[in-house]
Amino acid sequence: MAKLDARRVAAFLADPGGCRVVVLHGDDPGLIRERCEALVRTVTEGDALRLVEAGREMLRAPNALANEAASSPLTGGRVLVRLRDAADGKPVVEAARAALAGPGPGLVVIEAPELRTSAALFKAVEASPSGAVIACYRERGAELAGSIGRILQELGVAPEPAATEWLAQRLGEDRMLLRRELEKLALFVGPGGRVTPEAAVACVAEGSALDLEEALMAAMTGDVATADKALDTAFGEGANPVQVVRAALRHVQRLHLASLAVAAGAAPAGALETLRPPVFFRHKPMMERALRLWRPAALEAAGQALLEAERRTKTTGLPAPTIARGAVTTLARQAAARR
């Protein structure tokens, strides 16, 4: 069975067939846990007597995991043996090999977050027709948005595409934190409810991040007073200076990409449609206005100025909040002069 392609993972979690050992590895412990728990539900069918939590002391006997997998629970059915936080080494490799060669019919799941593809455990399971190796890396972009939509559907709510796109940009890549926020959002809209962008913003967004977005939108359209007021609020709610400068740089870089399309003949609205991740619908009018004010060369220069501002927050004796505020208000004054 070997290493599973990402497109086959969902089907495998729903039906692992005759597989005897699964290794879950990668840089997202939350996704490892989620996929292991999916296998637990599939194999044990909710019967707690069919789940064996294997401690590391069980590795002292090479056949211990295999013996547990071959056991027959009182309630019948197949056993799942779960070994958490495993690392490469002779004991776990020998235990995995014994389980692969054992009589089954149980399934041994080994969670090994830091396991490398060159590790002996990885190679032993990958090489066996009775083993499966599943990579659990942090998802990004369209892949993350797809997972968010699927999780929300599992939680009994209907997400709108614009909401999943916004959530993918906002929630980050840590699966445990992401699922926690999505569970909170599902409770917010209620069973069978629709997850609209407005609902997502109301439930998930942090105040400082929203105020920072407002400051950047206002700055790039020349609204100096609004930008300065929003910055005050963002700093008051916990935004740090480097975060402010980096957010401004990302915003300018996205505008620069869209401005190149405008310079090539595209309409501002059409240019924004080419950006990935997509522009949140509430931001489109102000970004269109900004594109009418800024040319590619000016945005390139603004990006260089922001890089210099970030350097100054780390290497000079000036107060970092002052540098960050000055960088954003300079953009606002430049935009105001272009009106």
From TrEMBL:
Enzyme class (EC, first level): transferase
Biological-process GO terms, alphabetical: DNA-templated DNA replication
SUPFAM superfamilies: P-loop containing nucleoside triphosphate hydrolases, post-AAA+ oligomerization domain-like
UniProt keyword Chloroplast present: no
A GO molecular-function descriptor: DNA-directed DNA polymerase activity
EC number assigned by the record: 2.7.7.7
Sorted UniProt keywords: DNA replication, DNA-directed DNA polymerase, Nucleotidyltransferase, Transferase
GO CC, alphabetical: DNA polymerase III complex
Entry keyword annotation includes Transferase: yes
Family annotation (NCBIfam families): holA (TIGR01128)
Family to which this protein belongs: Belongs to the DNA polymerase HolA subunit family.
Protein name per Swiss-Prot or TrEMBL: DNA-directed DNA polymerase
Organism (species): Roseicella aquatilis
Upper taxonomic lineage: Bacteria, Pseudomonadati, Pseudomonadota, Alphaproteobacteria, Acetobacterales
